[in-house]
């Protein structure tokens, strides 16, 4: 329904929760699923995110150094500015969160607080190391390492999931991952996405110059810049995937994402974002500084359909609603993002429809100097093909591999243990009664019930096989 307000998916804001001195863990206790599962794929996600963050950041710094070394000071300054400024903002936020955790740790460790289970715990990392990490722009790595550490401790523990210590490991992992994915998500669209347009435009101009010169050889830094651009696209695509996966892991009403589903999401995002970045670079090459009014026009159109289809409802937080709408609108410059609960069909149709129209306009008109760009005939057909393949993967994901399909079939990963045990007990009793009762009508009902359960089990087996 248009203009209907929905709950936010990006930020989980508790409703009328009494905050304890123990901090955010008390809030998270009510959000975590009853069945706690940490797969090796979850640990891989933490490690991959750490590696991609480091490679993405230092590749941008390396490109800036190459430009300065070659005397291209303007190019180097642009790359360095778009690399450092967002990174400084993200690390300041990370430092504030670290200090907040430090404050809560001291309050929990106070001798008077004898009722908390963290009374004799040591802090996870010293304050000096926290500050050092943030100074060297590696603050987000702390949260990923913390999530990886507690996830590893959870998998090593042989105790039952209802054990207090094991649940504590899971809660701490979830808390750290939530902070890490949120930081990485904003870092991707503050630093990586704008960096793609800047570096892509610079690389395209120099590639055209070297190609027109007829030398047939390209400088080594151009290959390095192509690798940096690829890493940035990977970073953006993966940040969207892990943000979605993190939200699903921490909610009892959601089913977590399986590895093959995350891979499909990543491929869909990678191909559509790649096509979008090439389109934006083509606009910059064609119109230069005049591309800014076009971006504002895109923001206006996006804001309209976001307000109509993704309006948020957060109790007593009107300013947060407006802030999230603005953030979502800016993100749509590079890729559509569903920030609100509810059906995504019309949201993605509008967002990707706008992207497709803009893409076809620039590659059909082919204004100068884009019409003389090397291999432009291949580019103008290749970009729509990439976009179409990405959309096809998205449709396949939502049709056959979306986690909600498993939820509708009764996936056990997020089902309450007590409810499951009670259901099994009732099922066993029902089978015993059916063997003793001779009434044909009742026996027929029992047989139908068993048949329906068998069908459900077959569907679940097929889903796991796929």
Automatic annotation (TrEMBL):
Origin species: Caenorhabditis brenneri (Nematode worm)
Keyword terms: Cell membrane, Membrane, Transmembrane, Transmembrane helix
GO MF: phospholipid scramblase activity
Family: Belongs to the XK family.
Pfam family, one: XK-related
Subcellular localization: Cell membrane; Membrane
First-listed, main subcellular location of the protein, grouped into a coarse class: membrane
The protein, known as: Cell death abnormality protein 8
Membrane spanning residue stretches: 43-70, 76-99, 127-145, 220-241, 262-284, 290-311, 346-367, 379-398
Membrane topology note: Multi-pass membrane protein
Domain of life (superkingdom): Eukaryota
PANTHER family: XK-RELATED PROTEIN
An annotated GO BP: phosphatidylserine exposure on apoptotic cell surface
Keyword RNA-binding: no
């Amino acid at each position: 329904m248009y203009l209907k307000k929905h709950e936010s998916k990006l930020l989980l804001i508790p409703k009328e929760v009494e905050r304890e001195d123990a901090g955010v863990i008390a809030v998270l206790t009510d959000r975590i699923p009853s069945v706690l599962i940490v797969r090796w794929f979850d640990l891989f996600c933490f490690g991959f995110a750490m590696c991609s963050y480091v490679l993405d950041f230092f590749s941008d710094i390396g490109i800036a150094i190459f430009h300065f070394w070659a005397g291209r000071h303007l190019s180097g300054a642009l790359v360095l500015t778009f690399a450092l400024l967002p990174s400084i903002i993200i690390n300041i936020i990370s430092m504030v969160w670290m200090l907040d955790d430090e404050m809560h740790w001291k309050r929990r460790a106070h001798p008077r607080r004898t009722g908390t289970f963290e009374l004799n715990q040591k802090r996870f990392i010293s304050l000096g190391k926290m500050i050092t990490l943030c100074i060297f722009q590696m603050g987000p790595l702390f949260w990923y390492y913390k999530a990886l550490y507690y996830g590893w401790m959870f998998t090593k523990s042989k105790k039952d999931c209802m054990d207090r210590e094991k649940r504590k490991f899971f809660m701490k992992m979830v808390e750290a991952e939530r902070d890490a994915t949120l930081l990485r998500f904003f870092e991707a669209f503050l630093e990586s996405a704008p960096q793609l347009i800047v570096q892509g435009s610079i690389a395209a101009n120099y590639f055209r110059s070297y190609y027109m010169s007829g030398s047939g050889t390209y400088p080594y830094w151009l290959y390095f810049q192509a690798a940096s651009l690829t890493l940035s696209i990977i970073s953006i695509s993966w940040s969207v995937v892990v943000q979605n996966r993190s939200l699903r892991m921490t909610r009892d009403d959601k089913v977590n994402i399986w590895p093959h589903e995350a891979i499909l999401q990543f491929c869909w995002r990678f191909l559509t974002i790649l096509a979008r970045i090439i389109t934006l670079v083509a606009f910059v090459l064609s119109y230069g500084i005049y591309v800014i009014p076009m971006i504002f026009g895109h923001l206006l159109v996006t804001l309209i359909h976001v307000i109509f289809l993704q309006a948020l409802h957060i109790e007593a937080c009107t300013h947060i609603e407006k802030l999230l709408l603005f953030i979502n609108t800016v993100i749509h410059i590079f890729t559509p993002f569903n920030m609100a609960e509810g059906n995504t069909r019309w949201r993605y149709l509008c967002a990707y429809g706008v992207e497709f129209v803009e893409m076809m306009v620039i590659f059909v008109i082919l204004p100068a100097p884009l019409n003389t760009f090397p291999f432009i005939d291949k580019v103008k057909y290749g970009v729509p093909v990439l976009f179409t393949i990405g959309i096809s993967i998205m449709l396949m994901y939502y049709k056959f591999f979306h986690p909600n399909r498993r939820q509708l079939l009764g996936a056990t990963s997020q089902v309450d243990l007590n409810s499951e045990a009670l259901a099994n007990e009732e099922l066993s009793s029902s089978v015993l009664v059916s063997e003793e009762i001779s009434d044909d009508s009742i026996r027929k009902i029992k047989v139908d019930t068993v048949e329906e359960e068998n069908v459900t089990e077959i569907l679940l087996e097929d889903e796991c096989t796929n």
